[in-house]
């Protein structure tokens, strides 16, 4: 597979760290990032729309898609299955777009193996208490699922060293600005700038 010309950003976080809201705001920041819409066997939460938040599919369909090699990565998270469309990513990479994946650590690891240049960003909540409070406030999941997610947060954080950037989501706007800084910094990396400004550099050298 060709090396991506655009950036491939992966954002992971323990559930309740505020990742989805940050990603939404990041997408609205006119940075021209393209979000990969995952497939999941989880039931839609209230307000979620099929095709916008996820492609909601049955376990049978998910298994069939695995058999057909339609996922670039897939993982079981909190008892549900999630997967990233291989076709969508291939097409986005071929057109040189910047891509954003909002996936868990297992998926991030699989993507890093395929695309070593991908940029991993880990979002931390400011404290374990804040995380528990956010999960309860959201209250869209059963209490036993909330407990499961709190326990899983520790396991998720144990993978933090596999990421390139760490952002603490204490103040939403600060965390968003830090995310935007990461995107800008990656755009300015030497290997991308050398290609983008090839003719300028050759004129000047
Ligand atoms: P939620 O059900 O709360 O939307 O997501 C649960 C977890 O699954 C989150 O950590 C989310 O980032 C992760 N997730 C969402 N889509 C994918 C995917 O396509 N692949 C993987 N590996 N994880 C995903």
Question: How would you characterize this protein structure?
Answer:
With 205 residues, the protein is α/β, with parallel strands linked by helices. It has a domain at 8-36 and 97-204: P-loop containing nucleotide triphosphate hydrolases (Rossmann fold). The protein has nine helices and nine strands. The strands form two sheets. The chain has a five-stranded parallel sheet, with helices on both faces. The chain has a four-stranded mixed sheet with strand order 4-3-6-5. Helix 1 packs across helix 7 and helix 5 (128-138) packs antiparallel against helix 6 (143-157). It is globular, with a radius of gyration of 18 Å. The model has no long low-confidence stretch (mean pLDDT 93). Guanosine-5'-monophosphate binds at residues 15, 38, 42, 73, 75, 77, 82-84, 102-104, 106-107. The site of guanosine-5'-monophosphate has 14 residues, from strand 5, strand 6 and helix 4.
What labels describe this entry?
single chain; 205 residues; 5-stranded parallel sheet; 4-stranded mixed sheet; 9 helices; globular; binds guanosine-5'-monophosphate
């Amino acid at each position: 597979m060709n090396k991506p010309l655009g950036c491939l950003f992966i954002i992971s976080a323990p559930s309740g760290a505020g990742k989805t809201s940050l990603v939404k705001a990041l997408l609205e920041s006119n940075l021209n990032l393209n979000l990969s819409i995952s497939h999941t066997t989880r039931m839609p939460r209230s307000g979620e729309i099929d095709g916008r938040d996820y492609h909601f599919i049955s376990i049978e369909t998910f298994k069939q898609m695995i058999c057909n090699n339609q996922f670039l990565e897939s993982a079981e998270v909190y008892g549900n299955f999630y997967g990233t469309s291989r076709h969508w990513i291939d097409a986005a990479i071929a057109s040189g777009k910047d891509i954003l994946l909002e996936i868990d650590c297992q998926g991030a690891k699989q993507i890093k193996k395929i695309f070593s240049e991908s940029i991993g960003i880990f979002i931390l909540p400011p404290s374990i208490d804040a995380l528990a409070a956010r999960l309860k406030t959201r209250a869209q999941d059963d209490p036993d699922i909330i407990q499961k997610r709190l326990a899983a947060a520790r396991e998720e954080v144990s993978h933090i060293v596999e990421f390139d950037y760490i952002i603490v989501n204490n103040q939403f706007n600060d965390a968003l600005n830090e995310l935007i800084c990461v995107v800008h910094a990656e755009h300015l990396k030497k290997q991308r700038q050398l290609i983008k400004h090839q003719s300028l550099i050759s004129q000047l050298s």
